[in-house]
Amino acid sequence: xxxxxxxxxxxxxxxxxxxxxxxxxxxxxxxxxxxxxxxxxxxxxxxxxxxxxxxxxxxxxxxxxxxxxxxxxxxxxxxxxxxxxxxxxxxxxxxxxxxxxxxxxxxxxxxxxxxxxxxxxxxxxxxxxxxxxxxxxxxxxxxxxxxxxxxxxxxxxxxxxxxxxxxxxxxxxxxxxxxxxxxxxxxxxxxxxxxxxxxxxxxxxxxxxxxxxxxxxxxxxxxxxxxxxxxxxxxxxxxxxxxxxxxxxxxxxxxxxxxxxxxxxxxxxxxxxxxxxxxxxxxxxxxxxxxxxxxxxxxxxxxxxxxxxxxxxxxxxxxxxxxxxxxxxxxx
Length: 332
Prior knowledge:
Layout: H1 2-21, H2 32-39, E1 44-51, E2 64-73, E3 79-88, E4 93-104, E5 109-118, E6 121-133, E7 136-145, E8 148-158, E9 164-172, E10 175-185, E11 207-213, E12 216-225, E13 230-237, E14 242-250, E15 255-262, E16 267-275, E17 278-286, E18 292-303, E19 306-314, E20 320-322, E21 326-330
Antiparallel strand pairs: 1-2, 1-10, 2-3, 3-4, 4-5, 5-6, 6-7, 7-8, 8-9, 9-10, 11-12, 11-21, 12-13, 13-14, 14-15, 15-16, 16-17, 17-18, 18-19, 19-20, 19-21
């Protein structure tokens, strides 16, 4: 048995090495600008199709799918924001998620993480850059879902034309399984506004807003992504705290869902509905102490440049608290 396991491990390692060999010798970026210059070929909105494999625990194998993906720099140019949505042919969402990559000047390295809903189950984890060169990048992703943790490797290869590929590999049962997406520029959908019909009631909220919270001034930006099938939400406080969210229409639940992560290591999700000039979302999450909390958030449009946000929180011990109404003003 040890000999057989050893052979299988060698075969798996060889599969990883072979995939990386296609890129050649790898190096670490010397700066944020160095990394951005390498990966800018993947910026924009993309689409691909394929058949799922055993790479991801939360996604069943053997399903035909289409995937839309976007890679965008934040407005300040200091963070790369990644978003994706994977669907079956009948519109069932297999996976939707977001992540970020940023540079830590004090440590001279990249930081990255991903958070997703795979077939309705929350998963997340950190990413580590193995290396890069002018042909592509290699990342290691440690995913946790349903209490289980495993590693995958992501190899992005940038072609000479207007396409690029993304391959995810993982060792399962002593062998390496993989799935490769060959991405091409996304075809814009046929809808009149910036958002798909299911999200169109939120068009008034697109843009950048400013408000006051106990820790000071916050700016919050709502941006249409993936040709209007998602809304990216980015918040930043005056003292440096950050929140990133992704809002989309879940056809399986017939409701609007949002997933958030913040710079304190907290994550939460909510689900709700939209009406003219108003959004109501109910959610649950896990705070930095590992405690489960829940909340209700209500946005009410006052006029083109003002909306009110009310938040009711229920703590880990069941205590309820209604926070003061936060007045948001549009930044023009």
